[in-house]
Specification:
Layout lengths: L2 H23 L2 H39 L1
Length: 67
């Protein structure tokens, strides 16, 4: 895992907690803020995963070129 994936997972989890707290307390602003943070975290995690996959492909390509 790279830094983007880790930060994305953290933001996703924090957003889920805020969203749940907003739902439980009836605080629509907190619920909305949590949903936004969760979505941003999921996007960040996806970007990090994509960057890692591209890096792995380039690494494999480099190994194939060396042969």
């Amino acid at each position: 895992m790279n830094r983007d994936e880790i930060d994305g997972k953290k933001n996703n989890l924090a957003g889920r907690i805020k969203e749940a707290a907003g739902t439980l307390t009836g605080n629509k602003d907190l619920e909305s803020e949590g949903a936004d943070q969760r979505a941003g975290g999921a996007a960040e995690e996806g970007l990090g995963r994509a960057r890692r996959k591209v890096g792995e492909v380039l690494e494999d390509l480099g190994k194939d070129v060396k042969r």
